[in-house]
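User: I'm writing a short methods note and want a consistent example. For beta-mannosidase, I'll paste the sequence; you return only the structure tokens, no commentary, since I'll be parsing the reply automatically.
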Amino acid sequence: MDLQGTHYRSSQVTPPPLRTELHSGWTLRASAGPAPEAVLGAAIPAAVPGCVHTDLLAAGLIPDPYLDGNESLTSWIGLVDWTYRTAFTWEPGGHDRHDLVFDGLDTVAAVSLNGRVVLDAANQHRSYRVDVREALVEGRNELEVRFRSPVRYANEQSRALGARPRPYPMPYEAIRKSASNFGWDWGIATYTSGIWRPVRLESWSVARIAEVRLDAVPLPGGGRLEAEIVIERHDPDAALTARASLRGSEAAVEIPAGADTVRVAVEAPGVRRWWPVGYGDQPLYDAELTLDTPDGPLDAVERRIGFRTVRWDTEPDDEGTPFTLVVNDRPVFVKGANWIPDDALPVRIDRARYERRLRQALAANLNLIRVWGGGLYESEDFFELCDELGLLTWQDLLFACAAYPEEEPLRSEVEAEVREQIPRLASHPSLVLLCGNNENLWGYEDWGWKTILDGRTWGADYYYELFPRLVEELAPRTPYIPGSPYSPPGMHPNTEAHGSMHLWEQWNRRDWTTYAEHRPRFAAEFGWQGPPAWSTLVRAVSDEPLTPESPGMIAHQKAAEGNTKLTRGLVPHFRVPDDMENWHWAMQLNQAMAVRFALEHFRSWAPRTMGAVVWQLNDCWPVTSWSAIDGEERLKPLWHGVRSAFAPRLVTVQQRGERLAAVLCNDTGDDWDGDLVLRRTAFDGTPLAERIAPAFVAARCTLEVPIDPAVAAGGSPADEVLTASFGGERGLWFYTEPRDSRLEKPELTVRSEPVEGGTELLFTAANLVRDLTLLIDKADPDAVTEQGLVTLLPDESARFLVRHRGGLDLEALTAPGVVRSANELVAE
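Assistant:
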């Protein structure tokens, strides 16, 4: 490998910094462990950044672990020690320092340069920089990274630190590596190893910018950027100047000899505030921080920043303790989804994939993404895109569903990673919350941990002492909570009237209609399972015959008693179909109905409830799970349910004691007025009762309108429906479950019209058709439609825009397996 870095022209004494990627010429070898014969001794071409799995796949040495039961056939990878090697040429260039920089190593690695160990690493969640000037030689240099088996290392550390309670067999709490990498109730166990983020050689002189801590403060008529710059010096006595530049304004501060931190602030008139999507625009501004000597520039860092204020209102009120997000002094109803790593082999996620997923989130009317604590600190690409799109972000620190040791060597690694991540994350205007962990506070109270721990540490010092101290030091204006769920001190962490709440009894033990029994101040997790899109499923599982319990299906169902819970959750609403395609549709539809029901209920209680974060947005492989978008990026019916329930304006019919009420939810900046039309009709369209009354809903408000019992009281529950229509939106109330109703086979006519990028379909119903949906991937795996779960009364029509490539005729677009409704699961 030849070093080919980027030089900058300069006539000054100090040469400009040189940053050279070391991404070519790598090979991979199995150095110890149960590798198969075809792998042992082989020098496998390796991609950097990358991981062992992707290299073995590229070389044809393993089957795709995402297909059938191949997960078990590739589990040996996590038991093997792996060695990466490359060579490069190097010539001295007049610099004082030469640093080898790894942005990410997964996970336990010893790095050698020319036979000299220069770094021992044991944390996937941080970067590493080491001065290698004493190890470099002129000419050829050999670089080696030896990874230890993550499975063996985690088990060794668990024995050394003491076993801790967790829900899964592998001791992921004993290693600083993505917890879900060891398998989860939606995730494949991959046990990855590799140089998973960029690596480079950085050569510099005198001093460099080691870190910047930014705070963009809105002011009347503009804003002020406050920057704390951390400096690493080679020359402790050099005269240095720090500069901050923003929109033509500049400020400079002289740095005393020996000082390694400096604060500089620059004011920029005319900058506008950054707002979440749906509340305003997202103006971003390029800021530059530079480090200079009298002889010229030394280093520079550029960041895109946004000006906004953020806080969470937790001031106790008459009903408990709210958990209300306030951005720029305006309360925000959070419409969110939980995020897991988008691929179980995260090196395959690029910026384009992030953008596709986040735009799908935006199209579903989401305004917040919660990055869950068993995954990763998401990349700059992720956060930059959220900044641009106006998607708020909540980042868990990476501790999930387990008791974590507080002893060394883990404690120092934890502090190092969090010290690195807080300033990076806090510079993004989209970030509105840092959270200490996922469910560990709850687990300590309710999951029998206290008895098992018998006095051992479990992470409390991290969540209540270390992390808040680091946030205060590094990003004092960034909100922090110790965990999710979380209630104020002295209370059970999952208390409905206080703070945030997770609701899992519905999925685990109860019917989804019991969401209506809860009025949380903020619902941070809840969800329902459903299978992936049909084309995703049949590509991943080749069972013959394919059934809900066939071997490949079970391999792609990770939840404990998952299929039992699917069935138990379906039976109150639909009978369990005997054939596979109807089973697939029934489970997908029930998932969508469950979450849509919960979301409409939560929204109807605003402002008591001020947020709902669905579990979960995405998947990391093809699997039956709680996701709205499956592992091959396809929309599930749940996505349509979320989009509907999170619409800017929503009309929903809700039970209020013994009566029904129409609830009008206006999450826009404009007032909403018109006539509220309440109508009860028979399924055949016969009008039975009606009331019309004017209504007014102020911006960002909710209005509850009791429904006259003469209209609401159904005379024939099995074949009547109540509709509440207002301002172009409609809510529906059915008096019985679908299985007990008189839904008939759908009678639909359809017209098609070619449009740019696809086809528009116009469906007209002759009878009531409930939750009309196109499983459009059955017609074309790449086709997409954002319309779904549409209920049509007799003589009503609905348009579906199908985006697809090439020719798809009407017959393909409207085949029986493509056009689905609840009716088909009920009608004889």
